[in-house]
Amino acid sequence: MALSDLTVDAIRQAITEFDNIGRDAFLQRYGYGKSRGYFLRHNGSNYDSKAIAGAAHGHVAGLQTLSANEFSGGDKTVARRLRDLGFEVLEPSDTPTLGIPFEVGSVYHRQNDIHQVFGGQERGGIATPGDCPFVFLFTGESGEQFGYSDGWRPDGVFVYTGEGQKGDMTFIRGNRAIRDHMADGRDLLLFEAMKTKGNYRFMGCFAFAGWETVKAPDRDRQQRNTIVFELVPVPDSGPAPHVEPIEVNLRDKSLNELRLLALAAAATPKVPSKESQRTYYARSAKVKAYVLKRANGHCEACKKPAPFLRSDGTAYLEPHHIKRVADGGPDHPQSVGAVCPTCHRLIHHGDGGATLNRELEKYVLEIEQVQELGSAVK
Q1: Which DSSP symbol is given to 247?
Q2: How far is CA 99 from the centre of its chain?
Q3: pLDDT tens-digit readout, 192-206
Q4: Burial tier of 192 (Cβ tally within 10 Å: 0-12, 13-18, 19+)
Q5: Dihedral over Cα of 193, 196, 198, 204: its sign
Q6: Which contiguous run of DSSP H or E holds residue 16?
Q7: Residue 175: closest CA among 140, 215, 127, 131
Q8: Among 134, 79, 123, CA closest to 101
Q9: pTM of the model
């Protein structure tokens, strides 16, 4: 009983069954969850590769179907075997989804649901899989034995201790990934360890707002400088996001003045912040004010005028974060577009949304290049 027993004909029979009864019924019949990466691509359609492989095993003479817990999915197992048989298997980066593929409060198995799908380091508190829009953070594993613990502060900031068990912590590897996640266009996804080994509860998407260094013992019980990150929760894009009116002191500034403020605000903080949450939202407000003024009353996706005016007379458009999959960042002029509500919903939930998002990204980049040249001339 092994994936090496699979044949082309068995895979095709499973695909036919999938088509005949539909995705939900197929997954329910064989006890599989929905794939979050490595889709089998066949005749223009995507199929959950692990479920197809498990069901196809039962179409091989003398063999039975495989349940989800009898084998591992991912690039090194199912994807490799399907490719060996001549099938196309998409990488996670080939199937971008404008949304977080995890539900807040739900429990996931670290190995099966995260690393087998997206890759990344399977040990430690920070996983940075390559070619992936996520940085995975795991809390509750072993921090307290080193004299510190992660958790919520009264001001709504989640403090998260960096990686490094010996000597002073520095901004390399996972620590650098957290600090620079906005510039890199990656979401910070935080998971909390459960009592059952390997299981983690998804706490949500977060943004780096600042940090501080504290003295704490390392693995050898020697005092060292420990990096403690300050993370602000970022909500997923909802059906009707609330967009705050632009502050008067920002609204009255020129486009060039706002751009300079936005670029300064988008820079990664270089020193620890004592008011990380307030500072984070203040930086975000400057970027959004610039982007909305840059649009000059027209949706940067469909190019049509804003659907209506606010009570203060400004055009109603919604800031949309292009590079990251969750609304909320990165807050950088090149990564945020001002779009109408219809285009915003289409990008996040509609057929063709990914294409429109790519077109918007190209358009915004071109605009910013023009703005950069204009600033250089001045």
Answers
A1: P
A2: 7
A3: 999 888 899 999 888
A4: middle
A5: negative
A6: helix 8-21
A7: 127
A8: 134
A9: 0.60
Tell me which residue range forms the domain holding 326.
Answer: 248-377
Token pair recorded at residue 281: 């939202």
Residue 331 lies in a domain: yes
CATH, residue 153:
2.30.280.10
Angle between helices 8-21 and 23-30 (to 10 degrees): 120
Amino acid present at 159:
V
Closest CA to 344 of 305, 308, 313, 300: 300
Q: Are 35 and 50 in contact (CB under 8 A)?
A: yes
C-alpha 127, offset from chain centre: 13
Tokens of 111: 């190995």
How many domains are there within the chain? 3
Indicate the residue among 94, 127, 153 that finishes a domain.
94
CB within 8 A of 118, min separation 6: which ones? 36, 37, 92, 129, 132, 134, 136
Tokens of 2: 């092994």
- Give the residue carrying structure tokens 């509750």: 140
Residues 185 and 258 reside in one and the same domain: no
* Mean pLDDT within 62-71: 86
